[in-house]
């Protein structure tokens, strides 16, 4: 790994939305590095700018000031290079297309040959454990399976960076636990860099190598926690003292962000 190369590097990043009610400071003085192979979670109360930060990395929003480098270039160029896959909270699959058809759609638009589309769809379906479901329609799959299909779609470009905005937020806890385990396995196998938005402290602690705690109005980073947990993480690790200590620090960071106020 190059010590001076970061997959994402934000320096004094500010992003303000001008609205009818005046400016909304969605991000203020955000400084953050994401390195290759990191699994970074963003956690904070509603409205603290988590989605805005992810969207800025994806060049879907543009910073008001400061610097943002993605894959060594500007977010716009990184987007053109298809440097990332994006997974949204809702699976967002087209109901009239099969699962494989959904995965192939962006590849079709990008002009991949039919054979390559099939090869890639087969490969990513296998990665998310949906082998054999390519011919099914979204409504024939459970919510968790649909979300896995949307992860497969984001993986189909084979981008090194995966941006995930609360992908499991709408799922029940048991399904969510299972998907968390599977996502960690996938991350290990593919060596992707993952930026992951969540509201759940256990989810953030279980998944991440780095936890970014944010506070609202204006959206700032209040703590960055480098996880000391081993890479190998059975779900039972959540009962360990180490896990509980990290979760405690996240909770304190969230409390500080609230209590201290930012205005
Ligand atoms: N396009 C926009 N125009 C105006 N204000 C916006 C826009 N997008 C977001 N905001 C505001 O910016 C702030 C940050 O929003 P953002 O969606 O990034 O928060 P979040 O932490 O992801 O919240 P949640 O957890 O509820 O998804 C909020 O106050 C929101 O209302």
Automatic annotation (TrEMBL):
Keyword annotations: ATP-binding, Nucleotide-binding, Transport
Source domain of life is: Bacteria
Pfam families found in the cross-reference section: ABC_tran
Q: Which residues form the signal peptide?
A: none
Record-linked InterPro entries: AAA+_ATPase, ABC_transporter-like_ATP-bd, ABC_transporter-like_CS, ABC_transporter_ATP-bind, P-loop_NTPase
**Could you give a GO molecular-function term held by this entry?**
ATP hydrolysis activity
Domain ABC transporter as annotated: residue spans? 8-241
The text of the family note is: Belongs to the ABC transporter superfamily.
Record protein name field: Sulfonate ABC transporter ATP-binding protein
Species of origin: Cohaesibacter celericrescens
């Amino acid at each position: 790994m190059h010590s001076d190369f970061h997959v994402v590097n934000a320096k004094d990043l500010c992003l303000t939305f001008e609205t009818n009610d005046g400016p909304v400071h969605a991000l203020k003085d955000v400084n953050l590095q994401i390195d290759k192979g990191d699994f970074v979670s963003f956690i904070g109360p509603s409205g603290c700018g988590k989605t805005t930060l992810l969207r800025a990395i994806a060049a879907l929003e543009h910073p008001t000031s400061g610097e943002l480098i993605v894959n060594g270039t500007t977010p716009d160029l990184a987007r053109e290079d298809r440097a990332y896959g994006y997974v949204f909270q809702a699976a967002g699959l087209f109901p009239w297309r099969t699962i494989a058809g959904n995965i192939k759609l962006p590849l079709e638009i990008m002009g991949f040959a039919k054979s390559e589309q099939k090869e890639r769809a087969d490969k990513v379906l296998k990665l998310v454990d949906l082998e054999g479901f390519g011919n099914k329609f979204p409504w024939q799959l459970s919510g968790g399976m649909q979300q896995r299909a949307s992860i497969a779609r984001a993986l189909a470009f084979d981008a090194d960076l995966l941006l995930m905005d609360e992908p499991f937020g709408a799922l029940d806890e048991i399904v969510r636990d299972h998907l968390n385990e599977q996502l960690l396995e996938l991350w290990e196998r593919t060596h992707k860099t993952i930026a992951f938005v969540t509201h759940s402290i256990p989810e953030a602690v279980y998944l991440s190598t780095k936890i970014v705690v944010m506070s609202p109005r204006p959206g700032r980073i209040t703590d960055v926690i480098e996880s000391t947990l081993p890479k190998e993480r059975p779900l039972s690790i959540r009962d360990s003292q180490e896990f509980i200590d990290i979760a405690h620090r996240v909770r304190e960071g969230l409390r500080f962000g609230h209590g201290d106020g930012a205005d």
